[in-house]
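Anyone able to model this chain together with adenosine-5-diphosphoribose?
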Amino acid sequence: MTNIDEQLETAARIVSESSYLIALVGAGMSKESGIPTFRGGDGLWDKHGEPPMDGYQRMLADPAAWWAERQAQRQSQAGDELTRAIEEAKPNPGHIALAEMERRGYLKHIITQNIDNLHQEAGSEAITEIHGNRTKMRCVNCVRRWGRDEFVPKDMPPRCPDCEGLVKSDTVMFGEPIPPDALESCFREAQRADAVLLLGTSAAVYPAAEFPVIVYRNGGKLIEVNPQETPLSELCSAVLRAPSGHVLPALLEEVGKLDTGS
Ligand code: APR
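re: yes, here you go
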């Protein structure tokens, strides 16, 4: 039996025996949907450099200008490449396998760092989007959200009809605090989990990378699906060095075999 088969068997046993399995998802999960990652050697930040860390503060300083620029669709090179890729992307077999794992009761919650809405399109329901969702708008004050097409700005910059707060894309900008409702949900899920699937994340960004460590410290088990090593690899009980679009359908099948005894 090859090492990956052994790792797959170990991972399947952890999934099958877990009572509250969650997933922490990163950009690698959507790579096979044609969306570039940020790091890992061929990512957007590798190619174009990281964007300034004060984008949010600059937006707050002049929200009308930010909105004007956004509407003029004058975006950074990375932004154009990312936006175009996301608009054309469809869920890949990894997203579909995760949705099936939720449907069969194995997977209780997805914490995703991705803003691409592909988990929803694949049929997953229990999702927390720690970096927001590009198809939504959000009030930065009361955190009310709207579908992008259902929010029609009356004034510029747009104001929340409930609290007059500034409305922007739900996508969390560099320098922007994680929305409190999303952060609270992530910590709650991490505290409940006894196992975590680490799917396509470099575990380089906090607080997202902290959630698997909480589960580990509570005695939970980690499974990593990533062609490359990450700072969390050494905490994992199973490591699957392969693309998530290949591994997750195989993992779902292996768990099914365990549960039917076949
Ligand atoms: N399947 C699984 N993993 C993959 C695949 C694949 N097909 N292809 C690449 N990867 C792995 C890479 O090895 C890398 O470890 O996916 C990871 C992607 O890492 P990042 O690009 O850093 O993405 P992520 O971890 O989601 O970044 C976190 O950083 O800039 C911010 O807001 C951005 O949400 C993002 C956050």
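The domain at 1-35+91-134+172-262 is CATH 3.40.50.1220 (Rossmann fold).
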